[in-house]
Design goal:
It is a single chain. By secondary structure, this protein is of the alpha+beta class. The protein has 25 helices and 18 strands. Strands 10-9-8-16-17-18 form a six-stranded antiparallel beta sheet, covered by helices on one side. Helix 17 runs antiparallel to helix 20.
């Protein structure tokens, strides 16, 4: 009877919870009176309080404070957000008897705490950044080395740069070298380097390499030319450099061992799955994985950390359960959780402790920490705690695709967990075969459903950051992830454990077989027509609305989640009619892409191919940078080019001084890397001086106005650049700003850039 009552109580609780998250029928909703609507809202809020669903919004408010910090001008003071934080905390304590007022004060306190975290983080990583292009002898310790096609890429802890004062000398530089034979992490080397500042975005709103490099402590990028010599260091390396070098050396050794044991393209992929070193993966293999929508498997992040920690947890629990007496007397589950924590931490350190890997480790540690204190491991509350820890440690992570996509996908899947856990009523005792088939069916449904939910949740972020969509990613993930989960990652754990004994060879070959099948599946899915779709860059407004909709959908426990329809619908409406730029201008005026009268971009000048590809992707154009059609709609000679845009408005690209006289008279916009004469009468002139001050610039052309967006503001007051938008009347003269030191895009650096 007691069991019956408990079962009935659980059934009623499930029905009540389901009723709380489902709205009333739509015909009734239309006829709601204000009093009924207020009653519904109050009931939903009461349900949120009872289920402690206000806590996750603290992480949301913390993130809003970080966004405000990155939108601020100049160098924000620390005392302002800290003072506001203290006032809000005092207000929350004073108003603790009023739940609504206390919740509002806590939310404001979290917002100011996020702003303060941004200020503290920016100051803690402050380091010199190179301000000009130089060619000079350089010496330093190799902290990390990575094999790449056609050479190696080194992370160098600088000891000296000839001609650069110690106050202006970057602490870390990232350089490429063509051969690099005999070089290893920990070596003290010297050579002549061509160094330049980390590159800024190719267009306003594009991926900001300079900001990411600043937060990683990298003050310059470039290449080593000539002979690279190993030298005797003037003193021993710092312990942090020594430790990093030893770990990197071990990673490289294991990477080559795995690649040699497996061989071929699968060898490079298998090594990347274990050590995080992706340099041995060829670009054709990268494209195959991207087209199938499963490129995320080679970037060690949430999936790998969960699978690795889960493998450690399962192995420890299974081994401990073999001893019945031990299993009965000791908390086997908690001991296995500790083993998973240790194993996941070791895996993170050995795989390089990249930013994305550390974020995943924090999330994993929070989940297993919940197991140790007898709390549910998978909960929105735990996810919020993980987000707070990650953002407090790295506020800049909020702006990157890794944080947005990983936390968005996990939150969406957690909101789906109750639906996946619903059990159907059993009609009678099932045979072992029936149970097996039912388990397989549930596994397939769970895999497809979670993949679909994660894909939908991350689609807006993928469109914003990468301007690509993979419609068949659901198929690719559904076919590839079982192999990765059941074969590849367990083999990776067993192989690492067997590596010190020299018995890892057979394990890598088994893993290589599974990786080969993953690549075959990827090639098959990638061969579908339309497997990769280029979409126009998503605007901040559309991204913000869709992100708000995702939060409203996943965080509430009541019917408030149905309000997510409003922001999601508005965001999709905005995304359906994107506001494309009509002119993209390279940061130094070396080239531009101009929308011709036919509606497609026409290329003028000689910008880097990587920059052109960024422009085309932002426009939703699937052409390659070397496509001949890019040059057809531009009338060019040796002095320059002219493109006829909409409304018969000519845009001139000037290469020689002799062309200014005619182009300044006939063109509406003049673009040049030269210094334009002061008498140039074109309505808008973007010459060398203006572009050096603004950086990469993009224009939207209306009938009477030109909307101008630039990567940099005229006066640099922050260590990274922020976009600025302004309206310039076509009848006004050119706008000039105070110049800043010139910089160049390093083609060898940005052509291999991948977000963490």
């Amino acid at each position: 009877m007691l069991e019956h009552n408990r079962g009935e109580g659980r059934r009623i609780a499930r029905m009540s919870a389901r009723a709380a998250v489902l709205p009333r029928p739509w015909p009734v909703l239309v006829g709601w009176s204000p009093d009924e609507g207020r009653e519904w809202l109050v009931g939903c809020l009461r349900h949120e309080v009872e289920h402690r669903r206000l806590f996750p919004w603290i992480a949301v408010c913390f993130g809003l404070g970080i966004l405000l910090f990155f939108q601020a001008d100049g160098q924000p003071a620390l005392w302002a957000p800290v003072s506001a934080l203290a006032i809000c905390c005092g207000g929350a304590f004073t108003l603790r008897r009023n739940l609504a007022a206390m919740a509002a004060m806590i939310g404001l306190a979290a917002l100011f705490a996020g702003f303060a975290a941004g200020v503290v983080r920016a100051r803690s990583v402050a380091a010199p950044v190179l301000s000009r292009v130089i060619i000079a002898p350089v010496t330093g310790f190799i902290e990390a080395i990575e094999d790449r096609e056609g050479g190696k890429r080194l992370l160098l802890r600088v000891a000296d740069i000839q001609g650069v004062d110690s106050a202006a000398r970057p602490a870390l530089i990232r350089v490429s070298v063509r051969s690099g034979e005999g070089l290893s992490a920990g070596h003290f080397i010297g050579g002549t380097a061509r160094l330049l500042p980390p590159p800024q975005p190719a267009w306003p709103g594009g991926y900001d390499f300079a900001r990411d490099a600043y937060y990683k402590g990298i003050g310059a990028v470039g290449s080593l030319t000539g002979t690279v010599k190993r030298l005797d260091p003037p003193a021993g390396p710092p312990w942090s450099v020594w430790a990093a070098a030893r770990i990197d050396e071990a990673r490289n050794a294991l990477t080559h061992r795995i690649a040699a044991a497996i061989g071929g393209a699968a060898g490079g992929v298998g090594a990347a799955l274990v050590t995080g070193k992706r340099g041995l993966i060829g670009e054709p293999t990268n494209e195959v994985l991207r087209s199938a929508g499963i490129y995320h498997i080679v970037s060690i992040s949430g999936l790998h950390m969960v699978l690795a920690a889960g493998t450690f947890f399962w192995l420890a629990r299974a081994l401990l359960s073999l001893a019945p007496g031990f299993a009965l007397l000791w908390p086997v589950k908690k001991i296995a959780a500790v083993a998973a924590i240790v194993g996941a931490t070791t895996y993170c350190v050995f795989s390089g402790s990249d930013v994305a890997t550390v974020r995943s480790l924090i999330m994993t540690l929070v989940m297993f920490g919940a197991v140790l204190v007898d709390r549910p491991a998978l909960s929105i509350r735990n996810l919020s705690i993980a987000a707070l820890i990650v953002l407090a440690r790295e506020p800049e992570a909020l702006l990157g695709p890794s944080f947005q996509m990983s936390f968005g996908a996990v939150a969406a899947m957690m909101a789906l967990v109750p639906l996946l856990q619903r059990k159907t009523r059993e009609s009678g005792p099932a045979t072992l075969l029936d149970q097996g088939l039912a388990w397989i069916g549930r596994s397939i449904i769970g895999l497809v459903t979670t993949t679909l939910v994660a894909s939908l949740a991350t689609a807006p972020f993928a469109a914003y950051h990468f301007q690509t969509m993979n419609p068949y990613g659901l198929v690719g993930n559904a076919l590839a992830l079982p192999l990765v989960s059941l074969v590849v990652m367990p083999c990776a754990v067993l192989g690492v454990l067997a590596y010190p004994f020299g018995l890892d060879g057979p394990v890598w070959r088994v893993m290589g077989f599974a990786v080969t099948k993953v690549l075959e599946v990827s090639a098959w899915v990638g061969g579908f027509s339309g497997s990769t779709m280029i979409v126009p860059a998503l605007g901040l407004g559309a991204l913000g609305l869709m992100s708000a909709g995702l939060l409203v959908l996943t965080l509430p426990a009541s019917a408030l989640r149905w309000l997510a329809v409003l922001p999601v619908g508005a965001g999709m409406a905005i995304a359906a009619s994107p506001k494309r730029f009509d002119v993209y201008i390279d940061r130094d005026g070396s080239g531009a892409a101009i929308r011709s009268a036919g509606g497609r971009l026409a290329l003028v000048g000689r910008p880097f191919a990587f920059v052109v590809e960024q422009w085309l992707r932002a426009d939703g154009d699937g052409r390659n940078a070397d496509d001949e059609s890019l040059r057809r709609n531009a009338r060019c000679d040796k002095a320059g080019c002219v493109v006829e845009g909409g409304d018969n408005r000519n845009v001139a690209f000037v290469k020689e001084m002799a062309a200014f006289e005619e182009d300044c008279r006939r063109a509406a916009i003049v673009i040049t890397r030269l210094n334009a004469p002061s008498r140039c009468g074109a309505p808008l002139v973007l010459d060398r001086e203006a572009l050096v001050a603004r950086g990469a610039t993009a224009l939207r052309l209306a009938r009477e106005t030109i909307e101008m967006h630039s990567v940099r503001k005229g006066v640099e007051t922050r260590p990274w650049s922020g976009a600025v938008a302004e309206k310039a009347q076509t009848q006004n003269g050119p706008r000039h700003a105070r110049p800043v030191p010139e910089q160049d895009f390093p083609e060898e650096e940005i052509s291999s850039g991948e977000p963490d």
